[in-house]
Design brief:
Largest sheet: 7 strands, parallel
Radius of gyration: 22 Å
Number of helices: 12
Order of helices and strands: EHHEHEHEHEHHEHEEHEHEHEEH
Distance between the termini: 24 Å
Oligomer: single chain
Shape: globular
Length: about 325
Amino acid sequence: MKIVILDGYTTDEGELSWGELEKLGELCYYERTPVDKVVERAKDAEILISNKIILSKEVLSQLGKLKYIGLLSTGFNVVDLAYAKQRGIPVCNIPNYSTKSVAQLTVALLLEIAMGVGKHSQSVHNGDWSACKDFCYRIQDITELDGKTIGLVGYGAIAQEVAKIAKALGMNVLAYRRTPCEDGIAKMVTLDELYGRSDVISMHCPMNGDSDKMIDELAISKMKDGVIILNTARGGVIDEVAIRRGLDSGKIAGYGADVLSSEPPTKDNALIGAPNCYITPHVAWASREARSRLMRIAVDNVRAFLNGNIKNCVY
């Protein structure tokens, strides 16, 4: 069985082994694949493994030997699912492998905005403390989170982990999801109520037609002055121009994101260089532990397919 990995580097980073996958077939590995090389490299693949390569109908229609698509991600919007289903090609993703890591980064962004750890540390290294007349100084307001309210938009596994950590910090937890659920941690509320009551709003919803740019000028106008907004979901759930305006005006006290509308971002992205804006390069999922877990599940998915027992198929 010919197995092709089109863009494996962000998953293994050259430090983790695909040895278990090699036991299941003839493996052809590429760190990265340019758009114009996808068909050429995948044309003989029976099993195709990919992360962010766009597998459109146009591409898939040229892969006559293809029997299985394995994604190195939870999201599956890069694949034309309707066409894959029509061809009888299962598309299998990797659910829940990075829940703890993404929740951890979400709270890390919040703590950085609230405490300014990075800013203060850099200031000390720049010599500001040595030159200070007093035993201490602040270069930004420091916010105590105890007693503050966090609102979680979407309440799946990651949001539920964030809720546990927020509760441990003494925060009140609100949540909105289309199908409410009570777990004794988050209070389910309407979206407008969440906007109006939250000191911190954290995005955890999937990217779809309903969530496209859902945090826009109108949504921001319903929020408290000085709100903190976090986004470790998808860049597209945020109107980045509206966020920039909110940061510039002070309506938004801080914005922390691990995702942007285009990745890598263009140089003219509205959030690049914005005040009180903290952006990490889509790394929430990328702890060594989470990547190791992802790879194990990816191999298990392929093994299950070969044994006639398909797992984690997304359609």
